[in-house]
Amino acid sequence: MKGGVVPDVIGTAKLTQAVTLLPYHEHLVWERLSVNTPISDGSAVLIDAPRSQSHKNIMVGRAVATMSGDSRVPVKIINPSDKWMEKPYVLARKFGSPQAIFTPLASLVEEHFTVIDLETLASQPELNQKIQAVLVWVDSAFLNRSLFQVLPNLKVVVNGGVGVDHLDIPLINSFGVKVCNTPKVVDNATADLAMGLMLASARNIIQGDSFSRCHEEGEDVDVNHLGIDVGSKTLGIVGMGSIGYKVAKRAAAFDMKIFYHNRRRRPVEEEQMVGAEYCPVLEDLLAVSDYVVLLVNLTKASTHLIGRKQLSAMKSTATLINVSRGMVVDQEALVEALQNKIIKAAALDVTYPEPLPR
Ligand SMILES: O=C(O)C(=O)CO
């Protein structure tokens, strides 16, 4: 293998989550790489864009090219004939089967990994020695003790998505296996969806769509369906992590008054940037908000964070928007609150179970 120097490496930073995607080979370069760091030709490295940038630019596996900002980093790709070029083995649900990794990502994953599905592992149990990572997407029911017991070289469980509430992290860690997720990647999408749900609810977009498809000749739209101007309204954000903050930025552009509730108050400058006011007591936020958006992780503490008491604290004209996890809301209490007009509406990206039975 030839030695060499990779020129013009820019904007490098080591993110734990990203780096743990790649602990597959002894040639891996673990150190933080700085500008113009020489990398010997053929080393497997991960060069990540700065923290503020999307993880979508990360190239994984044996690849060594990456993006930083808009510029492609000119990193040499290792020679595929090298003996250690064998793609790392990962276990995943069969692409295309329910709860498998999102099918459009299959080719990207296969470009960098040898993907073994559960059925193949069952029929060729000797592959267990090769598997160094498990990829999960939403479902982790197959990640049980007996699986870990037969994967002696497993190093990491990689979760596609930010929420790891479905993973038994203590169990995984007890086998010396790390867990990593993909924070930041979904921030914009989730924030957009929160805004989309709020606007759809405020402006009756779903009803408008139905009306436009099914109205009788000459029929006028119901005056109640004309909707509400969110610009004059108050948004309460419960959970002001990076997604919550993105929602705040968007809501600020809509001229909404913003309150937020979070375990930790954000720095004043960050609050001022989006005009958000901290509410240390959840019920205080609920009492003043026209729209309440839930963006907390699902933990023991946040399970049924919104129940009867909290729904009763809300305005009767308020809308509850849940883009976190279904279990954050006591669903029975929500149905009751909607039936009894304790609150006006709910706009839900998540429920339990999911999807709801018909
Ligand atoms: O990535 C996740 O866990 C999400 O739910 C995105 O909203």
Automatic annotation (TrEMBL):
InterPro entries: D-isomer_2-hydroxyacid_DH (IPR050223), D-isomer_DH_CS1 (IPR029752), D-isomer_DH_NAD-bd (IPR006140), NAD(P)-bd_dom_sf (IPR036291). GO terms for molecular function: glyoxylate reductase (NADPH) activity; hydroxypyruvate reductase [NAD(P)H] activity; NAD binding. It holds the Pfam family 2-Hacid_dh_C. GO terms for cellular component: cytosol. Residues 195-357 form the D-isomer specific 2-hydroxyacid dehydrogenase NAD-binding domain. Gene3D superfamilies: NAD(P)-binding Rossmann-like Domain (3.40.50.720). PROSITE patterns: D_2_HYDROXYACID_DH_1. Keywords: Oxidoreductase. Belongs to the D-isomer specific 2-hydroxyacid dehydrogenase family. This is Glyoxylate reductase/hydroxypyruvate reductase.
